[in-house]
Amino acid sequence: MRTLVSTRRARSAALLLFLLIGPALATLGLAEEGDPPVAATPRVLWVPFEGVIGTVASHFLVDAIDEAEKRAVDAVVIEIDTPGGLDTAMREIVKRILASRVPVIVYVSPSGSRAASAGAFIALAAHAVAMAPGTNIGAAHPVNLGGAPSDSTMSEKATNDAVAYIRSIAEERGRDAEWAERAVRESESTSAGDAVRLGIADCLAATRAELLQLLDGREVRIGGEATSLRIRDAVIEELSMSRRYRFLGFLNDPTVAYILLMLGFYGLFFELSAPGHVLPGIIGAICLVLGLFALKSFSINYAGLALMFLGVLFFAAELFVPSYGALTAGGAAALLLGSVLLFRSPAPFLRVSLAVILPAVLVTVAFFAFALAMTLRIRKRKPTTGRRGLIGQTGVARTAIRPRGTAFVSGSHWNAESDEPIAEGDEVLVVSVEGLLLKVRPSGRSRKDG
Fold first, then answer.
1. Would you call 448 a catalytic residue per the annotation?
2. Annotated active-site residue in 70, 157, 228, 432
3. At what angle do helices 55-71 and 243-251 cross, to 10 degrees?
4. What distance in Å separates the CA atoms of residue 124 and residue 98, rounded to the nearest whole number?
5. CB count in 10 Å sphere of residue 33
6. pLDDT digit string (tens) for 165-197?
7. pTM for this prediction
8. 3-state DSSP call for residue 114?
9. How confident is the model at residue 85 (pLDDT cuts 50, 70, 90)?
10. What is the CA radius of gyration of the chain?
11. Is 70 a residue of the active site?
């Protein structure tokens, strides 16, 4: 009897289990025979960048691609606007793009933007290139970062190296290698529309949504394997520069670096010329360190930096050595020459404009000229303290001075001596000071000490 009950319970449990699992199995079978399951919504990491390609840019964009791989997004879009920059920074970015496990799309945007010089290399290295109307790409001829005129052999070597590099990138991405070579050798630049017709860019897109729609389904190669972009209606996750990168980007400007150096010079000069104020020295030291830190992002001429230091030393020496303006003139010349020679690159965005240098030098000269004038004025001023300050002072004879007596001068009683008899109460004029004895004479006026 107990066995029969157990059997019935087992059959009931099996029937219940079948009723619960059966519909799920039927649904699974229908799903396999019908439409494919709905795919997850695609995601795109959007990275805007505007500015010079330098150390900060390379770190930021390399970190952005690392972040895209970490998030496992379907693509990363670098929205770029750059006049170019340093070759070393550009190569770091290109190497990271070529090694990326996530498709990298370079989008030259908004209208009026450009991907010039180093920016052209970066764009050609991307898996896909899009450009907004009114943008351009090219002008990738290498510049001499040394500043001084280079011989034809060195210039030809640099050009040939850049040509080989950009051709290899273009061939890797299936783009027009001949145009890429002309961009380097002849500094050829192309508008957005022509770039699409030449195969330099893949599409012309005015908006983000249009870019995602036009590039959706495009085949790219990741790690040697072909894959298709699935980015239509993708969720955009924007990755902007952090405060740290924005601060470093602010410093990554030759004009900012130059101004920080000048402020550093001023602060340290104030502190050394008038010790004890502390604040000018602290501000000067901080500005000087930040300025020197910013300089490491650029190719600089150390002779120019030395001339700037020498100019400030000349200005400071003028306050203590009476050279009648010779040190001030020398300081102005050294500061101006050092400022012009400091940045070695002929590229305008990698050096300080004369519109900044000339006012800075003129303000410095005016300040030190004012300080020199005040110093000379103080030196010529008649002493008003100490024993020398008593000469020329007037006082009152406390006793008759024939030839010696006492006089009240500058709030104190003094032993006095005179070659002429002076009556008590008469006004006296101090002629000289010998130890604790005043040499006096009658001032010409007589008054009684009331």
1. no
2. 157
3. 160
4. 10
5. 7
6. 999 999 999 999 999 999 999 999 999 999 999
7. 0.69
8. strand
9. confident
10. 41
11. no
Q: How far, in Å, CA of 221 to CA of 200, rounded?
A: 17
Spatial neighbors of 91 by CB under 8 A, at least 6 apart, are 165
Q: What is the third-level CATH fold of 388-444?
A: OB fold (Dihydrolipoamide Acetyltransferase, E2P) (2.40.50)
Q: In the chain, what's the furthest Cα-to-Cα distance?
A: 156
| Neighbour tally for 368: CB within 10 Å | 23
Rounded to the nearest angstrom, the gap between the alpha carbon of residue 129 and the centroid of all alpha carbons in its chain is 29
Q: Of 109, 117, 189, 339, which residue is the catalytic one?
A: 117
Higher pLDDT, 366 or 286: 286
248 Cβ contact list (under 8 Å, min separation 6): 56
Average pLDDT, stretch 81-107?
94
Mean pLDDT of 337-365: 82
Q: Which two tokens stand for residue 187?
A: 């500094």
User: Domain 43-243 sits in which CATH superfamily?
Assistant: 2-enoyl-CoA Hydratase; Chain A, domain 1 (3.90.226.10)
Question: Is the four-CA dihedral 150, 152, 156, 159 of positive or negative sign?
Answer: positive
Q: Are 307 and 337 in contact (CB under 8 A)?
A: yes
For 374, counting Cβ atoms within 10 Å of its Cβ (0-12 exposed, 13-18 middle, 19+ buried), the class is exposed
The domain locations on the chain are 43-243, 253-380, 388-444
Half-sphere exposure of 35 (CA within 13 A, CB side): 3
What does the pLDDT average to over 65-83?
96
Highest-confidence range of 73-87, 361-375, 376-390, 418-432, by mean pLDDT? Answer: 73-87
Tokens of 3: 């066995």
